[in-house]
Amino acid sequence: MKLLAVRRLLRIQRVVIRYRLDDLLFALPLPWFLLALRYALPWRWLPRKPLELSRGARLRLALQDLGPIFIKFGQILSTRRDLLPEDIADELMRLQDRVPPFDSQKAVALIEQQLGKKISDVFSRFDIEPLASASVAQVHAAQLKSGEEVVVKVIRPGLKPIIAQDLAWLFILARTAEKLSADARLLHPVDVVSDYEKTIYDELDLLREAANASQLKRNFEGSSLLYVPQVYWDWCRPKVLVMERIYGIQVTDLATLADQRTDMKMLAERGVEIFFTQVFRDSFFHADMHPGNIFVSTVNPWSPQYIAIDCGIVGSLTPEDQDYLARNLFAFFKRDYRRVAQLHIDSGWVPAETKLNEFEAAIRTVCEPIFEKPLKDISFGQVLMRLFQTARRFNMEVQPQLVLLQKTLLNIEGLGRQLYPDLDLWNTAQPFLERWMRERVSPKTLLGNLHSQVEQLPHLANMTRDLLERMSQPHAKDPPPPWHQRKDDWFLRLLGCAHLAGGAILAVGGPLHELGHWPAGIMIAVGLYLVVRR
After folding, report:
1. Cystine design at 74: which of 63, 106, 315, 467 (Cβ 3.0–4.6 Å)?
2. Cα separation, 200 vs 196, whole angstroms
């Protein structure tokens, strides 16, 4: 791996030199000691011919040559036109679905190898020219023998060695940063790279993507907000995915959307609602929502419906993370900065000794300016920088489990800016969060939680019965219970009896749920009597 990593570093260096990316770097307002590095780079000592390419094209071509990890980085950047010059943003947009395809004959051979059949035995029509090409796969249009119009997605060959090399360097950089910088340690770069490693390798398994798409489709079955294409499982393999072909308008094709008189305000608001529905209602969200993966249905433009493809990367949250995020966002919307500060301390994101008043004031200073403004008037770049400064001041730690969510939020915000710059992101999301929090404490939800707890009572009864049987007839190798280790320690004996009594109370509920477990209560009572007698 080390040899591969060195070879990869030399490859990156060659790409940087070929496309003069160092010129772009040194054109930035850097500190003098970084600008001085230009004189230490040997290739800058030699005369170089000027390139007939714009800076945006040079950056795009360099990311393309460097492979899928760099292409995905460019895709994320392309959604933030507020942070990039227009010429660079336009070029990076081409990385979303216009990456140069690989040889179609290789694609056909790989499909036939995966399916174990000839193309002509499966499809009545197969378009040899790819319909679209992205960082890790390309798509061909086809028609099944049964007549359904489909698309066939096939993984690019030879990706794993390149990804392994890139990840090796990312881990080296992350470990070095953690050793050299206290600020970097707060960001947990090694954990972040580890999460990304799992994500990128999962994306290479198209069976996983097919399962994700099926789940997402089931979550929004019959919804007017989002449509997910059908997966044809009979023809899905680890490197081949066959699914329904969809027809829609790419979400960034604003001219076509305007021509069909799409309600852009509703479209933007529904995008926010879809995101919050996936995160809080389902705890299962599409985490690769760059514009190349999102289309708009041509049916009912006055009530527009999204179409989502490419479900290779999805995220989920634990109930604790959901609750924490909802409470934080709700407190933000209410401008209850003291509550936000307290939640951060309670969750352990900042040290317990943090002064609540100081932390509250810092959060208020960062967040207050962004409210009551349309999206086009908010500089999220500046807000993020100030939040990072606040994080360093209070030793706030980045939570690696939320990296995918943060990335998706970045994509959603960039998309909303393009669709409807006057969208009030906060007022759009607030009613949804209020409704979700009310539903969490509704009688129906509480009864559902109670039912799930009651279902566990027979199991608890069996566990308690087994424990009492072991105590009444201890095995020679079993350690004695704590209250038997010291015969004169009556407090521990009483504590043990209280523990068993609590188990008995739980077990008695077993008959209420399932009559077949009624002997458990009798056995617990007998066992408890034996323990007290001893």
Report:
1. 63
2. 6
Residue 134 CA to residue 94 CA, distance in Å, equals 10
Q: What pTM was computed for the model?
A: 0.71
- Percent of the chain residues topping a pLDDT of 70: 73
Residue 297 CA to residue 300 CA, distance in Å, equals: 8
> Is 423 in a helix, a strand, or coil?
coil
Radius of gyration of the chain (CA): 29
The whole-number pLDDT of residue 80 equals: 62
CB 355 within 8 A of CB 455: no
Every domain of the chain and the residues it spans: 2-93, 159-199, 263-441, 446-533
* Residues facing residue 391 across a β-bridge: none
pLDDT at 4: 66
What is the C-alpha separation between 449 and 435, in angstroms, rounded? 18
The burial class, CB within 10 Å (0-12 / 13-18 / 19+), for 500 is: buried
Mean pLDDT of 123-149: 92
Three-state DSSP at 312 gives coil
What tokens does 95 get?
């990385």
Residue whose entry in the numeric block shows the structure tokens 């099926």:
214
| Residues recognised as catalytic | 288
Return the H-helix or E-strand segment holding 241.
strand 240-244
User: Residue 79 half-sphere exposure, CB side, CA atoms within 13 Å?
Assistant: 25
**Per-residue model confidence as pLDDT tens digits over 515-529:** 344 444 444 454 444
What is the 8-class DSSP label of residue 371? Answer: T
pLDDT level of residue 169 (50, 70, 90 thresholds): confident
Q: Contact 246/298 with Cβ under 8 angstroms?
A: no
